[in-house]
Design a protein that fits this description.
Blueprint lengths: L5 H8 L4 E3 H6 L4 H9 L3 E5 L2 E4 L6 H10 L5 E3 L1 H7 L10 E5 L4 E3 L2 E6 L7 E4 L2 E4 L1 H9 L4 H13 L5 H11 L7 H9 L11 H12 L6 E7 L3 E9 L4 E6 L1 H4 L2 H16 L3 E6 H5 L2 H13 L1
Parallel strand pairs: 5-7, 12-13
Antiparallel strand pairs: 1-3, 2-3, 4-5, 6-7, 8-9, 10-11, 11-12
Helix pairs in contact: 5-6, 6-7, 6-8, 8-9
Length: 302
Amino acid sequence: MEPDVAPLTRLARRQHGLFTSHQAAGCGLTRDALRRLVWSRWCARLGEGVYRIEGAPRSAAQDLLAAVLVHRVPAAGSHRAAAAHWGIPGYGGRPEVTVVHARNRRTPLGRIHGTLRLPPHHVTVRHGVPVTTIARTIFDLAGVVPELRAEQALDFALSRKLCTLRQVNEVFFVLAGQGRRGTVAMRSLLDARGEGYVPPASELERVGRRLFAEGGLPEPEFEVHLGDDQLIGRVDCLWRGARLVVELDGGRYHDGLSSREADRIRDNRLMAAGWRVLRFTWDDLTLRPQQTLATIRAALAR
């Protein structure tokens, strides 16, 4: 008699086409029945107790979930794999999983990071996969990537409101300890982001902020909404005392004809309200930095 696989199929659909031997038993399949399903190629064994239904589409989420399911102790996708799962740009590659009381090692399903501390509130389920929260992910990243990349991930998460500085600080105080990887880099990043910190909305803005600071310009306000009874819009950089607005034009948002038209209309409204507006591109900041600084200094001097 053929086993009834309908309940297991429904369960696997919610898990990117995966199931465990424990879940199969819960759906009424014996070990012998599961072996016959593997033999008939209805499913394939990926690792100890983890199976994929044949024909289920492959994906990064599926690979990461498989690496998590193979562990029966508290485990979650983490580090670079969790960053990719959260949508932080520049991350991907093989699955990485943090496992309580495990040793660091590589397995056919991915890389294992052992830890003594993985509190339940440091783990969440995103798109059906248990992963570390964005705040815990950033702390873990600080221990395995250059500080600049951790900084970019932190500011990306803050600007997209995936987490708050308070949440990152809470993770830091739980995990920070002498000799723990990422502690020094994370402390440096948090020290530089005090109360009222506004994260850059783009890599272009990050480059601009660094150029302005290293060029000795007075620190502007960032990401400011201007307008009174009628909102004009958000501006990138504002020197309020000089009535000067600096906009940083990235290609993603300003290349299209409609975007340029919207920029022109908004610039006119700003100037009618008494603001001066300067616009700079990526090339201005990276290829002509001194010329850019000189232009802003001249505008501020006026």
